[in-house]
């Protein structure tokens, strides 16, 4: 399921929303803010039926109380009013929402029992049903009710926000983003913020599932760019766009983000490193080499810069320099599998098969799912006279890669 921090962020937005708007729009400014009694009708005396006008006033005042956080007063007023209008489904739905806001879920469940035969066109009632189903963990039922609630012509903001939450819980981030777009017509800033979160989540999920599958990268980039369009000042989103552009070899689009994300700061090597990354995908290997060397000169322990420089050196046949560059990193605890892999390739290409075997085995231990390591280890074993094991590994590689 989706990450807890993301749902927490959406919930914070919902709480912020409820302090600004009622479920169905701002309360009528002409409605007087009376001190409302929370008492139930006295026992033994039948409640007087409320006229539709008074029931409407009660609902409006309860929304105002809910908006201001005075939930117990709202609950008391609604319970008293329902004594005179037990069939008023709008009052029932509003009472249910206040009970959920107050954390009184058991009472809300009892109240739900009165709605079995109720029609589906009472939007506040559908909102109550949807929220309760969501809190009970039944997101499919929640979505069905919330979709009906969101059809309300009277500012269905709360229904739309909860619908975004429900789709996010199901990891239906594209649908959640679509709902957020609907929300923009009522609350533009809130809709864009939620839409950005959902688009970002969709991109994250694509990246997580893609692994090393580069074919999925354009779809992830599309989601991140859509998120950034809705939240253009978000540098964390801009960084995801940049990284995905680099992985997609889109140097023309990546270069403009360098100044924004990696300003030239004295003592920092990040600008040089990222410049090197961009120059690699632009095909400027000489410029990339210069940038990585500059980053390493200022920060000799930057393994990522050393790895990228080693790739360039290896492609140029400079195997001895690769060994000299990466050997200090390979001796450190927790060494990156790419360090071991590149050393294995350098030794293999220079004909030192025993050393190559050692580093390929270390790389495989660090990254057992990386199939190209299996391929190179199998080849080296055959060349080192261990043909049976080598062929077995190559067979495993062929089965895994199709």
Describe the structure.
With 402 residues, the protein is mainly alpha-helical. The chain folds into 2 domains: 4-204, Serine Threonine Protein Phosphatase 5, Tetratricopeptide repeat (Alpha Horseshoe), CATH 1.25.40.10; 322-402, Tetratricopeptide repeat domain (Serine Threonine Protein Phosphatase 5, Tetratricopeptide repeat, Alpha Horseshoe), CATH 1.25.40. Helices cover 70% and strands 0% of the residues. It is built from 22 helices and no strands. It has helices spanning 4-18, 52-67, 71-84, 89-101, 105-112, 123-135, 139-149, 157-169, 173-184, 188-210, 217-230, 235-247, 251-254, 256-261, 270-281, 285-298, 303-315, 319-330, 337-349, 353-366, 371-383, 387-401. Helix 4 packs antiparallel against helix 5 and helix 9 (173-184) runs antiparallel to helix 10 (188-210). The longest helix is centred in the middle third of the chain and has 23 residues, at 188-210. It is elongated and about 95 Å long. 39% of the residues are buried.
